[in-house]
């Protein structure tokens, strides 16, 4: 009778312990599924943030390209104005025109020379500041962000570019290159 009781108790103990393992495994499996889903959501959030940064970076890049194209167009237009002004000057002086027209053409060339000295040449301080700030911020962001250097570089680049632009724009206003 004791053997039967001990055997029954052992069998009950074994069956109950197997049942608990299944419950624990089921609960553990459900927890793993939830953890996996949470990690997937976090990854999607990071991807979305990266895409937003890429879009803002592309917009900034496009605006810089537009500014560069506008500057090239201004340079071409100015070159055409200078070429047009210099062409009539040569024809009037080579045609044996009066000295008064020669004097007028000289005063015109000196005024164009005055325009040339005040002409906006090269990069503005805002453009220089933007480029320097973007590169410096991207480098700093990549160095600072240990887990995701790409995202750190994008964020640092945008922040540095904005800061550099602000400082450069203020310098342009001081020098008179840009009015409010």
Written overview of the protein:
- The chain is rod-shaped.
- The protein folds into three domains: 38 residues; 54 residues; 58 residues, no CATH class.
- About 16% of the residues have low confidence.
- The longest helix has 93 residues.
- Helix 1 packs antiparallel against helix 2, helix 1 packs parallel to helix 4 and helix 3 packs antiparallel against helix 4.
- The chain is mainly α and 180 residues long.
Structure at a glance:
Helices cover 89% and strands 0% of the residues. It contains four helices and no strands.
Mind telling me the C-alpha Rg? 37 Å
Q: How much beta, percentage-wise?
A: under 5%
What is the averaged pLDDT score? 79
| Counted beta strands | 0
Structural class: mainly alpha
Largest sheet: none
- Give the tally of structural domains: 3
Tertiary shape? rod-shaped
Separation, N- and C-terminal Cα atoms:
103 Å
Give the helices and strands, then pairings.
Layout: H1 2-94, H2 99-118, H3 125-144, H4 149-175
Helix pairs in contact: 1-2, 1-4, 3-4
């Amino acid at each position: 009778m004791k053997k039967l009781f001990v055997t029954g108790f052992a069998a009950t103990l074994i069956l109950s312990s197997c049942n608990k393992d299944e419950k624990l495994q089921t609960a553990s499996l459900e927890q793993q599924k939830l953890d996996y889903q949470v990690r997937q959501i976090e990854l999607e959030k990071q991807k979305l943030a990266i895409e937003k940064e890429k879009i803002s970076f592309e917009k900034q890049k496009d605006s810089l390209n537009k500014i560069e194209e506008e500057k090239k167009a201004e340079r071409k237009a100015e070159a055409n104005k200078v070429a047009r002004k210099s062409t009539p000057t040569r024809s009037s002086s080579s045609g044996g025109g009066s000295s008064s027209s020669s004097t007028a053409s000289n005063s015109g060339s000196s005024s164009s020379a005055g325009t040339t000295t005040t002409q906006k040449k090269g990069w503005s301080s805002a453009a220089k500041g933007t480029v320097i700030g973007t590169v410096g911020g991207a480098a700093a962001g990549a160095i600072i962000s240990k887990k995701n250097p790409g995202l750190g570089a994008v964020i640092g680049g945008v922040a540095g570019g904005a800061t550099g632009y602000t400082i450069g724009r203020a310098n342009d206003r001081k020098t008179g290159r840009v009015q409010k």
